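Q: Could you fold this chain for me?
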Amino acid sequence: MSKTPFCATSEQDQAIMFEALGIESFDDLFAAIPDHLRADSLNIPDGMSEMEMMQHIRRVASKNASHLVNFCGAGFYDHYIPAAVNALASRGEFYTAYTPYQPEASQGTLQAAFEYQTAICRLTGMEVANASLFDGGSALIEGAMMALRHTRRNRVLVDEGVNPIYREMLRTYTHNLSVEYAEVPLGKNGIADREAFKAAMDDQTGAVLFQNPNFFGCLVNLKDLIDEVHETGALAVVSVYPIALSHIETPGAMGADIVTGEGQSLGLPLNFGGPYLGFFAARKKLVRKMPGRIVGETEDGKGRRGYVLTLQAREQHIRREKATSNVCSNVQVCALRAIIYLSLVGREGFLEVGRDCMDRASYAWHRLMEIDGVEPAFNRRFFNEFAIRLPRSAKTVVSELIEQGVAGGFPGGRYYEEMDDLLLLAFTEKRTKEEIDLFATKLESTINRVEEMV
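A: Sure. Below is the predicted structure, expressed as structure tokens.
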């Protein structure tokens, strides 16, 4: 037995393998490759000690802008995460990214996923939910594809108020499929135009996608639009911001067929590139076409409660050629954080978080409207996010604010060419009155300074 069982191969192991292969050295394995095509050496620096590595990582990490006071949103929000979330989610019994394939041996993990599904159903007003998807964008794509499978149609119609990142992902996903992708332009008031949707829908439209609040923070009553969708035989897919569901009407109550969203706000830190959390819920009639893992509650032969992966005939590891779900894994550790967060804050705490977000946004709106040259982009109700118009390029203003230690919003011109002067701002429970006042002061001075430079 090897004295170094955790190393790949010892010199003795290599000698045995060389003898079996009839070669004398490792280089003999590559003898068939011409010399001029083989690299003499690799320009790789020497390895670091653990201490040196930690020092290097700290130097690299110090370049991150995590110290900035954050007023950015655009789908990802700077919420407070209770310390207990990290402590509980890091327990060895839970710390896995996957739902298990041997459920009888993983009852704790399965129950956590089941409780997560229950919470998502209650939040969205829907009847069934899966155990999670990769992020809000992939969840919305899966919702659109499920709607097309159910209706047996090939056209997706998307509100331009849907997050532009999600729309780009959907365009990429459908590019080489037999799917027609179409967008309905944003109305002048910042929300979906009902008449434009009616004109755009036809008998091949199988999925119609909305977002509430939309990318610009505008709240939309989707009931009438969803009724129009159903009259054409299509399904309505709605992407939502989960914290907003603390105070606005659920998509289920508005008639949505499928509800998706980004779950980062439920106990996950902001992270460039993730990992994030896509939640997915639907009407019960659609459950056999749902993507991803689904955890169900059952009883064993002795009548004891247990949890299992259910309806697995939908999935590619059961029948690849007829699968309705090709999601090979999920982000179970992120879903675990979400259910821990929701359990810790509870119903009243969740309502309080939402109320604090609305209060801060309302205060900020009135404070910013006092600045000369600042105007509301849309006269619509909002939750914790809204867009303003500036007298100069928002991108230039944001760059100036970053140098002053403030992440001063998201410039609309990044995704909408005609909105170069639009600045999207978000306010969570973490932002204080003092921070908002300081931001308003810096924004005003920055606008004036940019005007002087011009």
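A (continued): The mean pLDDT is 93.
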